[in-house]
Design goal:
Pfam families: PGM_PMM_I, PGM_PMM_II, PGM_PMM_III, PGM_PMM_IV. With 471 residues, this protein is an alpha/beta fold. It contains 16 helices and 21 strands. α8 packs parallel to α13 and α10 crosses α14. The longest helix is centred in the first third of the chain and has 17 residues.
Length: 471
């Protein structure tokens, strides 16, 4: 059964991620396009470096071609934000990206984008699931790939330069050139190697690259930037005395950063740095949007500049929708995805990385210095994060306790309010908070907690761990 989560449809290769299911999805989407009378506008599909990604793109393309829908296939592995940009720029009604983003190598999946290059929202994905449920295996037709190329129903394209030029035009390349920065780049065996490196070299940065070969197993590691997975980048920044170390996840929609001192910057810190920079140093005005599990330090920075911070459920589609509604400067999530006003309507690690390099050049300050500046002006808050694997029985138990019975452990802090918008989030009167929610992309229960001091944050997570019998 094909079901969409917060990051699209993801499944284990050879289990549910199969040619049959991929083509069922393509047939269902082609039916939806015909019902909406948008099939004449065509379809665009891209793919990442995962095992079977290119083949999956072609399998889907052959179905669209057989259904009379002209399909544009990216002829090289590409960042997810490139597809979103292309859908937006060329006004496609839909687009698809074959990727499982930061999931383990045994997974692959498909993200669906709608008009404007947005992540398909829950209304759209539920409708698509309904279409899928009505497609029978014998309904699926496919056109031979070479035949589709010959008759123009499939067109191979390479819009990389178009995407890169869009970013280059939005970034202060002169400031970066004048600064002569040294950047360590870790694509994590993913798709950013060409795109981000091209931008950095165009800006005359000295680029030190690691983990850039094509490896469908991602070097045996999770292709998700974290303190654990970026140890090699951390050492590289220190050894080579780089100004910044930048990593991107498997499909380059998220980033991880090592600062000039070799410290791993949490995605929360990256969001705070960029919002502060755009408002204080670039003179932008407007609110910020974060999801329910992202740092409230953004609230503090927004308050410092007389702006608002808006909270939405997890899922970047909610962030992009609220950004459009409020004309926000920036929106992002604690897992490392963000976008900026005037850019695409989804996460873009390539653009985020380019902005961070610009920030160092324009301010003339090191990342560590800007972080201290923010702490001096806006204060600080400490986050504790924990992930727990579970089986279906345990998931049902936790859901019953938190969401249905609405039980909580005995908390030693005054509660301001409780939200069940996405998981269970408790807000405290001292400005702290704790949330427990199930991941939409992996079988994990995630607990995030922020408090004015780290000891209280750890204590609260321990309380939840004991209360829910997670260990």
């Amino acid at each position: 059964m094909i079901q969409f989560g917060t990051g699209g449809w993801r499944a284990v290769i050879g289990d549910e991620f199969t040619k049959e299911n991929i083509q069922l999805l393509a047939k269902a989407l082609s039916n939806k396009m015909k019902d909406e009378e948008v099939e004449e506008k065509g379809m665009v599909i891209g793919y990442d470096r995962r095992f079977l990604s290119k083949e999956a793109m072609q399998w889907a393309g052959r179905v669209f071609a057989a259904e009379g829908i002209k399909t544009y296939l990216i002829n090289r592995s590409s960042p997810t934000p490139l597809i979103m940009f292309y859908v937006m720029k060329h006004e496609f009604p839909y687009g698809m990206m074959v990727t499982a983003s930061h999931n383990p190598a045994i997974y692959n999946g498909i993200k669906v984008f709608t008009e404007g290059g947005r992540d398909a929202d829950e209304f759209q994905t539920k409708a698509l699931e309904e279409y899928i449920s009505h497609v029978k295996k014998e309904d699926v037709r496919e056109m031979e790939y070479e035949e589709a190329l010959k008759n123009g129903m499939i067109v191979e394209i390479n819009p990389l330069n178009e995407y890169l030029d869009n970013i280059i035009s939005a970034v202060d390349m002169k400031a970066i050139r004048d600064r002569g920065l040294k950047v360590a780049l870790d694509p994590m065996y993913g798709v950013s190697e060409t795109s981000l490196k091209t931008i950095l070299l165009t800006a005359r940065c000295e680029v030190e690259t690691i983990h850039d070969r094509h490896d469908t197993l991602f070097g045996g590691k999770l292709p998700a930037p974290s303190a654990h997975t970026l140890r090699a980048l951390q050492n590289h920044v220190i050894d080579k005395r780089c100004d910044i170390g930048i990593a991107t996840d498997g499909d380059a929609d998220r980033i991880g950063v090592i600062d000039d001192t070799g410290r791993f910057l949490h995605p929360n810190d990256i969001l705070v740095l960029l919002y502060y920079y755009l408002v204080k140093y670039k003179g932008w005005h407007g609110p910020v949007v974060r999801n329910i599990a992202t740092t409230h330090m953004l609230d503090k920075v927004a308050e410092r500049f007389g702006e608002k911070c808006y909270e939405v459920p997890v899922g970047f589609k909610y962030i992009s929708a609220k950004m459009q509604e409020t004309d926000a400067v920036i929106g992002g999530e604690s897992s490392g995805g963000l976008t900026v006003r005037g850019h695409i309507k989804g996460k873009d690690g390539i653009y985020a990385a380019s902005l961070l390099v610009e920030m160092i050049a324009v301010t003339g300050k090191k990342l560590s210095e800007i972080a201290k500046e923010i702490e001096t002006e806006c204060g600080s808050i400490y986050m504790e994060e924990r992930d727990y694997k579970f089986n279906q029985e345990k998931k049902e138990q936790i859901y019953q306790i938190l969401m249905l019975d609405k039980e909580l452990p005995e908390l030693n802090f005054d509660i301001d309010k409780i939200s069940y918008l996405d998981g269970c989030k408790v807000y405290f009167k001292n400005g702290g908070w704790i949330i427990a929610r199930f991941s939409g992309t992996e079988p994990l229960l995630r607990i995030f907690c922020e408090m004015p001091n780290p000891e209280d944050a750890k204590q609260l997570c321990n309380l939840y761990e004991e209360f829910l019998k997670l260990k």
